[in-house]
Write a structure and sequence with these properties.
single chain, 270 residues, alpha/beta, 8-stranded parallel sheet, 3-stranded antiparallel sheet, 9 helices, 16% strand
Length: 270
């Protein structure tokens, strides 16, 4: 287990729950009538429900800023920083940030808000819904360090959602290469899109070649599957399953979140 991952999450297999902001100003789905205060109010409600359920950490993301961008509008990053600042005194667990799909903006947001960790696509080459996708881990990690935040743990998603890898190497080989060349603090394995599960065979194959590096399931973990997932993975990132009706775009359902964590506690005891 990497030192930064252990410092943020301890020894247990963490449940990192998503706080999905409403669409930011300038995005097509932005609710101008509710405004920025509406974004904060929605996030506050979800944050309270997740913390009451007992999640180990939360991550703030701009999933509603569809269509996604590789170079995010400055208004999105600035609004996310403002919203997190407004909620800062209410955050009782470690928190991370993710600005889709812009590693530089993600690092800037982490520096501005005091986030403990970030999630991003940092390596690889993809054909995606957003066009050709070629992230630059070297630039993002150097930017993090220039901002004075080399303490931020970086969670690398090595199988991008909404995209097809143009790299012909196997997923385990791509993951091993990312660990060797880009020094991530954890590797994330994803399904095809938000809310869809990563294949157990993918989790197992990646974990097999990297027994000493944290490997987390990044998408589609459900109440019925979290036990099996945590027997392989070193933690999970969960969003959709904790929402009303299991729908990504709904608010967090306090009962679903509480039940999810009840199952997780049982798995940990076992």
């Amino acid at each position: 287990m990497t030192a930064k991952f252990k410092s943020v999450f301890g020894k247990k297999k963490p449940v990192i729950a998503m706080v999905h902001f409403g669409a930011m100003p300038g995005a097509p789905l932005y609710d101008a009538k509710a405004g920025i205060e509406g974004i904060i109010a929605g996030a506050r409600k979800d944050l309270a429900a997740l913390q009451a359920a007992g999640v180990d950490a939360v991550m703030f993301g701009n999933e509603n800023d569809r269509p996604y961008e590789f170079k995010v509008d400055a208004a999105s990053t600035a609004t996310m920083a403002y919203a997190i600042g407004a909620l800062r005194s209410e955050i009782k667990v470690p928190f991370g940030v993710n600005v889709l799909w812009d590693p530089m903006s993600t690092m800037a947001l982490a520096a501005a808000t005091g986030a403990s960790f970030v999630r991003e696509i940092m390596t690889g080459t993809y054909a995606s819904d957003m066009g050709p996708w070629t992230p630059d881990a070297g630039a993002a990690l150097r930017y993090r360090d220039r901002l004075g935040r080399n303490d931020v743990a970086v969670l690398f998603n090595v199988c991008a959602e909404f995209a097809y890898s143009l790299d012909q190497r196997s997923l385990p080989d791509r993951a091993r290469s990312a660990v060797f060349s880009s020094i991530p603090d954890a590797i994330l394995v994803s399904g095809a899109i938000t809310g869809e599960a990563a294949a157990m065979s993918d989790l197992e194959s990646v974990k097999k070649v990297m027994p000493d590096v944290p490997v987390l399931a990044n998408t589609g973990v459900k109440h019925a599957t979290v036990g099996d997932v945590l027997r392989v993975a070193d933690g999970v990132i969960v969003g959709s399953s904790l929402k009303v009706d299991g729908n990504t775009w709904n608010s967090v359902d306090p009962d679903r979140a509480a039940e999810f964590m009840r199952i997780v506690r049982q798995v940990r005891k076992g």
